[in-house]
Amino acid sequence: MENKLIITTSWDDGHELDLRLAALLEKYGLKGTFYVPLRNAEKPVMNVEQLKELSKNHEIGGHTVNHIYLNSLGNSDAAYEIKECKVMLENQILKKVEAFCFPGGKYAQRDIEFVREAGFLFGRTTKLLMTKNETNTFLMDTTVQAYNHSNITLTKHCLKRKYLKPIFQNGFFINSNKNFVKLTEEYTNRLLQSGGVFHLWGHSWEIDEQNLWNELETVFKMLSEIKNAIYMNNSDCWKSLNTK
Is 98 helix (H, G, I), strand (E, B) or coil? Predict the structure, then answer.
């Protein structure tokens, strides 16, 4: 996959609006991984029949049993949330569940090991502006969120993770600070030259709340028209990067 642009997308929380999002992905021939908790006290979650329908064309990933921040739990509860969500989802959709996502991007070091022990390939984070994935870490990072962050938020995100390169690459986010469409264009143009992974992620309920469906469709259309790009779900992307 050297010097190839891989495009992958993922969508968190299992809201019923994921079905609308999935239809939009299919319209443009894109692949999605949907990270679904079994229960969520804050948002409604798709029922079993909806989940089965979604799984026909897209990957389903684990997102804990109760959509709870893992770093707030003790060892046994954290292990349960990670391991049992895999078992429960597989029983519902009758397919193997290989991908996991940490709710809120919150996790402790021990949770990475729980992900590995459960049989997941990786744990997807919410770390932004990344275009490479080191498979030996068991972590999959992301590139752009389908949300219009401010330049201050994006800069703080980089500083917190001691990853300064995107700050300078994007001119301190002045030109694209409030526009994930522009940020997508800038990153995919770079990756066409260097190769790497462009990973778009978000929440369907948030896209709806922020009235971003038109912008999202613009991005999907843009991604679908990139010549020689390779479109994969998260697990297939991970496997391709792990193939020597």
Answer: coil
